[in-house]
Amino acid sequence: MVMQSVSLADELTVTPARGGAGTAVADLHFLPTGGKNLAQIAAAAFRAATGLGGEVDVSIRKHVPVCAGLAGGSADAAAVLHAMNELAGAGLSRPELAQIGERVGSDVPFCVLGGTALAEGRGERLTPLPPLPPCHIVICKPPFSISTPQLFGRVNVRKIVRRPDTAGVAAALEAGDLAGVARRMYNVFEDVLEPRRLAEINEIKSVLIDCGALGASMSGSGPSVFGLFEDEARARDACARLRESYRDVFVCAPQ
Length: 255
Known about the structure:
By secondary structure, the protein is α+β, with helices and mostly antiparallel strands. Helices cover 37% and strands 18% of the residues. The chain is globular, with a radius of gyration of 19 Å.
């Protein structure tokens, strides 16, 4: 799949631990703390790989919705790897940090590198692509979560009829053709959603298209939906319309 980093982001503060084991504290009470948090798993992976750095305390202020198909936890883990690299003075390159990220989660290597990339394998095989042309991206998360393992369990590779035109997306990126990218987007997970969930995903996509999005699709394993806009005013109009029904709606940019 083609992956794209955007400007929507959490805020992390990483400091040397005051004593004992490091902590991970978020402003959402239901997120795991301590060693069960991906941020602390990333810190432990860095220490194991380099032999450098001590225990750290991580404070997380969430802006990226959780369980949304947006790799928010993986992005937090990637941020910790960058912070540990600085705190320890290790001087590792981004590709070296991405290799450590493979031990933490499938999306972490991409989150370390950012930009636009073709992801293969579990997500650890990354090929840089030309950047997405300047645009405005509206993201909307409906108020439910989707089990990624369950979705994978429903996918029968032999029965997949529609697929994203990945080669066409890469060619459109090379040509700087935003509309060409938007026309070729597709998420095979949409085909295995429960009917009531699919209906809501399609409703959000319809609002985005009605407001002028060049294309819209579910992100990752969902349930977040995104639309690509050339015009900022239309993107903000779509955001305003969706906020009449949904709390988690954002306008952001490729990064």
